[in-house]
Design goal:
The structure is a single chain. By secondary structure, the protein is α/β, with parallel strands linked by helices. It folds into two domains: about 280 residues, TIM Barrel (Alpha-Beta Barrel), CATH 3.20.20.210; about 60 residues, no CATH class. The longest helix is centred in the middle third of the chain and has 26 residues. The chain is globular.
Length: about 350
């Protein structure tokens, strides 16, 4: 099987010739290892997910985005006021993190609710043309799958990005109905984005970068606020013959029953202890129809290749079958991990006798 065929089979829970593998490395990792004297071959073993531009734009009079150096500033404008969300880029993780949240008061909740209701997303025509060419090229070369980041589900976006963990809970307690109205408006906006991706881009995966775990929300909050919206978004993907994937590292063992209730869901980033609290065999037992990817954690990758292999072997041996199972590093692999560790683990995964 080609790498693309293997990953598509994983996403559809079909038999594969060997387990798919994704070692997550950043440019910072490559640079650090080369400085340490490692000889890095390209591509890094198991780098199969290629990100495609989401092509999303909002009306310029309602949303402005300015990126300068390591700062990304988003300004949300409505008829009742303006607020802004500021991110700072972290080079080691290759990600942006909120530095200033858009929601701090009841007025901010109302502004963002109005914005979600008024802002109608669309796809930039030129960027869409380039993205479709990129997707066609990926499919032709058969070495990867393409993924479009369709967002984060409304409750996660509210907690992590718009309000921040502490303020999100305080505002929900003080202005419960207003926050629920905000979440409903955010869902409508998210559905519009998702349908644009499914209907016009047709990616292999619509990825929702959740990073949602019970370290951020309680199991009851996930069940009451996140789960209903995730099910709606997943149903839309299924009706459009698309695949919804959620990146969910961290502590998720308390919400496994909820996750199991979502049909044909792909969960990536399943993180083993001590960073997470879930293993692949536990996931398979609780979520028999879920496609599961992950199985390791950053702390484990700081140990020897033999330690990584021992843990993976134990979990894989305990599983009844390996359909819908892929191995990833879950977290980004730490720069201190020798490149040789990755190649040894890749060799183990490539030769592991899978159960169909």
């Amino acid at each position: 099987m080609s790498a693309r065929e293997r990953w598509l089979a994983f996403m559809d829970a079909k038999p594969v010739d060997r387990l798919p593998f994704w070692a997550k490395t950043s440019a910072s990792y490559i640079a650090h290892r080369q400085n340490e004297g490692d000889i890095i071959t390209e591509p890094v073993p198991g780098s199969p997910w290629q990100w495609t531009d989401d092509c999303i734009i909002n009306q310029e009079n309602l949303w402005q985005c300015d990126v300068k150096d390591d700062t990304r500033r988003e300004c949300f404008t409505t008829s009742i006021g303006t607020t802004e969300l500021i991110y700072r880029y972290d080079h080691l993780s290759g990600s942006y993190y909120p530095e200033k949240h858009a929601i701090n008061t009841l007025d901010d909740i109302k502004i963002m609710t109005e914005w979600f209701l008024a802002a109608k997303p669309s796809l930039d025509e030129k960027r869409l043309e380039n993205a479709l060419q990129s997707i066609t090229k990926m499919k032709r070369e058969e070495n990867c799958i393409n993924s479009v980041i369709s967002g984060a589900s409304p409750f996660l976006y509210y907690v992590v990005h718009l309000a921040g963990l502490e303020n999100a809970n305080l505002l929900m307690m003080a202005f419960h109905e207003d926050v629920e109205a905000l979440l409903d408006a955010a869902l409508s906006h998210m559905i519009s984005r998702l349908k644009l991706h499914l209907e016009l881009m047709k990616p292999d995966i619509c990825l929702f970068v959740e990073n949602m775990s019970t370290m951020l929300v309680s199991p009851n909050q996930f069940h009451d606020y996140a789960l209903p919206h995730i099910k709606i978004l997943n149903d839309i993907c299924n009706k459009h013959n698309g695949r919804m994937a959620m990146q969910m590292p961290g502590h998720i063992s308390a919400i496994l029953n909820d996750l199991a209730s979502i049909d044909s869901l792909i969960i990536e980033g399943i993180c083993s202890p001590p960073v997470g609290d879930t293993t692949l065999d536990i996931m398979r037992n609780h979520c028999p129809n879920t496609r599961i990817a992950g199985g390791t954690n950053a702390a484990l990758w700081m140990k020897s290749a033999e330690s990584v292999i021992e843990e993976l072997s134990k979990n894989l041996d305990a599983m009844p079958h390996h359909r819908g199972v892929a191995i990833t590093s879950s977290d980004m692999i730490p720069p201190a991990t020798p490149f040789d560790t990755i190649t040894k683990v890749a060799d183990f995964i490539n030769s592991y006798p899978i159960k169909s």
